[in-house]
Amino acid sequence: MNKTALKSHDIREELKSGKKMSRDRSFVRECFIASGVISNPDRTYHLEFTLDEPKADKLLEVLSKKFGLRPKKIARKGQFVVYIKEGDEIADVLKIMRADKSLLVFESTRVEKSVRNEVNRLVNFETANLNKTVGAALGQIEAIEYIVKTVGLSYLSATLAETARLRLAHDNLSLAEIGALLEPPASKSAVNHRLRKIVKIAEQIEREIFFD
Predict the structure, then answer these.
(1) Which residues have C-beta within 8 Å of that of residue 199, sequence separation ≥ 6?
(2) Bridge partners of residue 51, in order along the sequence
(3) pLDDT score of 19 more than 80
(4) Are 71 and 64 in contact (CB under 8 A)?
(5) What are phi and psi of 105, to 5 degrees?
(6) Residue 36 near residue 46, CB atoms below 8 Å
(7) What angle separates helix 188-211 from helix 100-150, to the nearest 10 degrees?
(8) pTM of the complete model beyond 0.85
(9) What is the model's pLDDT at position 136?
(10) What is the pLDDT of residue 212?
(11) Can you say how many angstroms the Cα of residue 40 is from the centroid of all Cα atoms in its chain?
């Protein structure tokens, strides 16, 4: 994992190497050396130049018209800030300035951040699914126990009663695993359908007892 942080000072030092480039590229580079700041891309994407109004307007024109970027400008403490918040466009600015080493660090950090976010998304997705599965299983068991207590499993059809017994005996198994234990075996969707019917039957019994 990349441990090198991207720092404004390091970029300025790299840009002072004096690489030859076009006038527009050189202007962007000089603006950054004078007042450029870039945030740690591991946290947020933000690059800005703090300049007087003529230079800020010129930089806006160069970046937008010459290089097809979309910088913005705001006033801050009597000066003007030209800033970019899109990761791809910040990478483009580093390319424009020929800050190759800094670009490598920036892109490496972006990749790591993207991978980390994707892992977190998948973990959250799996956790949500697990919680949903556990919640459903608890609801099914509660319904089956209610039927046992009130009317007994004999109230159910043979296939539903068998499914209910297996759900009670194996509360940690998935629907597919329960289906494999049935005789004859049943699919995951078939088991889910049976358990839904059992829950509805329990709700019906409860209503009948309540209004009796």
Answers:
(1) 139, 140, 143
(2) 80
(3) no
(4) yes
(5) -65, -45
(6) no
(7) 50
(8) no
(9) 84
(10) 56
(11) 19
